[in-house]
Design brief:
With 383 residues, the chain is an alpha+beta fold. 36% of the residues lie in helices and 20% in strands. The model is unreliable at 1-10, 28-38, 47-52 and 54-63 (pLDDT under 50).
Length: 383
């Protein structure tokens, strides 16, 4: 009886020691260090307890090596570094963070690079390469160049704003639905698509603004404007771009392509405000599209529109692309035909008010006299 009792006591103490070892192993695994030591110790405990265990590195092990996983992700993104010195610099920063044991920072950088890689593989990936690909010095040179003319009549203007890490990229896409093109402009012959991931060529937009909140870099791209196919074939290159408080309202248009389009882009921590005064290169004189829109970061991390005074022409779609999150369409404007939509706000109000008066007058029964003897003639012409 005594021997059996001693064996029971030893067994209880033995189990207690095993539990203590298991707690230590768990702490090692959660800490992300000593993975191999913890794995070997776990195997030894299993053997002592007489259980079936996988060998160290076998399929039965639940341990992981975060450094090895980070290195694997770096290797998968290595080709991205060949596309630009900016990408290569981020890869080097991720590797340095991994080497010093700052796995959270390495993970954050790799999440961002995976976002860039996914966006850059689409039709408009050149816009992502434009903001993320250059080195800091090369990007500063692009900013200093002002308006950069490209082949095919397109142009670009690079700029910097205050970064807001974690907010990803914000993209605004201006395009003209063909039904709203007014008969003299060549519309873009498409409906709404995702500004970066949708199936639309860059020249299927009038203006695209890309703002990388991670780095504080941005680019504005404008496409040329052509007459409608029913008119004589004529195209005009995009206008110059000025980065300043918009000053021309309404814009004069003495010669095609001469008056600049103006943009002001202000950004803070989780805030973004875009003001512009823009028109197509062959838009008639005195007409412009302008306004201001402000976005702020919401509780879910996505931006939300908090104020808007933009003209309702053309259609404008705003998207946000954050690391590790699905893309979001933040806003889409309604559109009007070219001429009413591009009128200055006060003039448009007068035109719309006049239209309402005419509509009410035309609703009056025809036997009611209007405006003396010329009333019936006017009704016949207007209504």
């Amino acid at each position: 009886m005594r021997a059996r009792g001693q064996r029971g006591q030893v067994s209880a103490e033995y189990v207690g020691v095993l539990l203590l070892v298991a707690v230590i192993i768990g702490a090692l695994l959660l800490s992300g260090v000593g993975a191999k030591i913890a794995e070997a110790a776990s195997t030894a405990v299993c053997r002592i307890a007489g259980a079936e265990c996988g060998e160290a590195g076998g399929t039965a092990s639940t341990s992981s090596d975060p450094a090895a996983e980070l290195e694997r992700r770096e290797q998968a993104l290595a080709a991205l570094g060949d596309r630009g010195e900016g990408y290569a610099a981020l890869l080097a920063q991720a590797a340095a963070a991994r080497a010093r044991g700052d796995y959270d920072e390495a993970d954050r950088i790799l999440d961002l690079l995976e976002l860039y890689s996914g966006l850059a593989d689409h039709d408009r990936g050149d816009l992502v390469d434009a903001v993320a690909g250059p080195s800091d010095g090369d990007f500063d040179d692009l900013v200093e160049q002002g308006t950069i003319e490209e082949d095919g009549g397109r142009n670009r203007r690079y700029f910097r704003v205050e970064p807001s890490p974690g907010d990803g990229l914000i993209v605004q896409d201006f395009f003209i639905p063909t039904a709203s093109s007014g008969g003299f402009l060549d519309g873009d012959d498409r409906d709404t698509v995702d500004p970066l991931l949708g199936d639309a060529d860059l020249d299927d937009s009038r203006i695209v603004i890309v703002i990388d909140r991670e780095s504080g870099r941005g680019v504005i791209t404008q496409s040329p404007t052509c007459t409608a196919s029913a008119l004589p074939d004529y195209c005009e290159a995009a206008r110059p771009i000025e980065l300043r408080d918009p000053q021309l309202r309404p814009q004069a248009n003495p010669l095609p392509g001469q008056a600049p389009n103006e943009f002001r882009i202000d950004a803070g921590d989780g805030t973004l405000e875009i003001e512009y005064d823009a028109l197509n290169s062959i838009t008639p004189g005195g007409l412009s599209v302008d306004g201001t829109v402000r976005f702020e970061r919401g509780d879910d991390g996505n931006y939300e529109k908090v104020s808007d005074s933009r003209d309702p022409y053309p259609r404008i779609v705003t998207g946000q692309y954050r690391p590790g999150e699905p893309p979001q369409i933040l806003d889409e404007t309604d559109d009007e035909p070219v001429l009413p939509g591009a009128l200055p706000g006060p003039v448009r109000d007068v035109v719309e008010g006049t239209g309402e008066v005419i509509d009410k007058a035309c609703d009056i029964p025809p036997w009611v006299p209007i405006g003396g003897p010329i009333g019936p003639i006017g009704r016949e012409i207007v209504c």
